[in-house]
Amino acid sequence: MTSSRNTDTRSAAPGAGGDGAGSDAHPLEEVIGWLERAEAQRRASDAARVALIAAAMDQTVGDPSGAAARASGPGPATELAYRSLRAELATAFRISEYEAERQMDLAHRLSHQYVETLSALDRAEISYAHARIVASAGMVIGAADTPELRRRRAGYEQEVLEIAVRETPGRLRPIARRLAERWAERTLDERHREAVAERRVCIIDGEDGMAELFARLPALEAHAIYDRLTRIARAAEHGERRVPARGETPEDEVRAALKQETSAEAPAARTRDQLRADALADLLLSSDEFSLFAGSTGESVRASVQVIVSGGPGQAGRPGQAGQRPEGEAPRADGEGTDSAEGTGNAEHADSTDFGGDIDLARDAELVGFGPIDGATAGRIASETGRWSTVVLESATGRVLSVDRYRPSEQMRRMLGARDRHCRFPGCRVPVSRCDLDHTVDAALGGPTATDNLAHLCRGHHVLKHHTQWRVSQDSGGALRWRSPTGREYVDRPPGAVLAGARRTVRFVGSSEPGF
């Protein structure tokens, strides 16, 4: 929102002199004035960014709502051009392709459907957040470029902007939804039938070994699920049902129940939110769909364990090398089958000797596609899986020298899976279990089937490489050099390179990973 104050009056800072000018002004007056100007400039800059992204889309794929697009449909060429532009923006801005697509979608809607909203942003009357809410709420009206829908969008936009200029984004959101519903051409029932087809579950990685699991469901089912979890949590609070805490083994559960029965000491209370979360995990991870709780991690989590060790070129695959064991024999967190003289007797307290010397699970355990995980979780998984392999890295560079697997499989896939860990397009984190193994130089063009000409690409970026103007070459050590359609160059180095000179590591990977 613009201010009616004169710029010159703000320049007189308190105590600046000049016949006592500004002597009665608040100490923050000048700072707030500069912040108002900076905010106005940022809003104008946001409007310019939106307009430029929209222009790039128009040049690349045209106006999807135009007459030509309606007559012929998007088509494969248009879809590939759109993907290429999305990748170009994501790499240029150093953001995910998901965020780039969100910005592209908003830019199109503001530039073609809500032009007055974009103008209000350029005049600094509203913020970028306001503009996003206006465009997002207006989606229920429809995106087609018919006279009737243009009239409806214009009526909605006029009403919502009168409120947007004086309300915060948080207050604007429910108001915008109500206004858009009044102008919508199709009823809520009709739209709901289509929205149900968009149901999905997704995961967002967080910090400290945590992640967020989201489900988009019909509102009735979502609230029913939440209600059931709440009822289970209440029953646990009242002692009518026991919900195992995260990381609790069946033996721990029995001991806790006995202690609760024989001791007057009250157990540590969990909040209702914690109980709901624990109940959800146990309901979904139970090995038997007719039972409520999973008995152990091994029943529900299928993992392969890679022990990462450093060594020189001559050490790869050397018999008796630290961390290696006879084929079919895996280290165990209870100490059996390890090189150590004593076992810990408890997976939760697996120490470095369990993995052949200097591995500390609390420090070195990592979940592929996520990052570091706590040692207790790693110990439980390690004690309950029989899928093990040793990955030998060159100490100086982190280059994968060999992969020795306890269950034999094709060696090249194992090496590349250990090297890449995820899609090798810049910024993409799709794990190799959901990637294609691609020839950097096509086999049809004479490219060899060798580790220095292969890399993992997710299906979307695999298609992008072969059907758009994106180009890639592979340098020594597995680094991929990508060149965008506009000539910009991005180098993606294999994740294993960051482990150069690192201590030995234990890595947990999905059981469907190629070669595992």
Shape: globular
SS-derived structural category: alpha+beta
Strand elements, count: 13
Helix content: 40-55%
Explain what this protein looks like in three dimensions.
The chain has 516 residues and is an alpha+beta fold. The chain is 42% helix and 13% strand. The protein is built from 18 helices and 13 strands. The strands form four sheets. A six-stranded mixed β-sheet has the order 5-4-13-3-6-7, with helices on both faces. It has a three-stranded antiparallel β-sheet with strand order 10-11-12, with no helix packed on it. Helix 2 packs across helix 5 and helix 8 packs antiparallel against helix 9. The longest helix has 33 residues. The two termini are 58 Å apart. The N terminus and C terminus are likely disordered.
Topology:
Elements: H1 7-10, H2 29-61, H3 67-72, H4 75-93, H5 97-112, H6 115-122, H7 128-137, H8 147-164, H9 169-183, H10 188-195, E1 200-205, E2 211-216, H11 219-237, H12 250-262, H13 272-285, H14 297-300, E3 303-311, H15 361-364, E4 365-367, E5 371-372, H16 375-383, E6 388-394, E7 400-405, H17 411-420, E8 435-439, E9 454-458, H18 459-467, E10 471-474, E11 480-483, E12 489-492, E13 505-510
Parallel strand pairs: 3-6, 4-13
Antiparallel strand pairs: 1-2, 3-13, 4-5, 6-7, 8-9, 10-11, 11-12
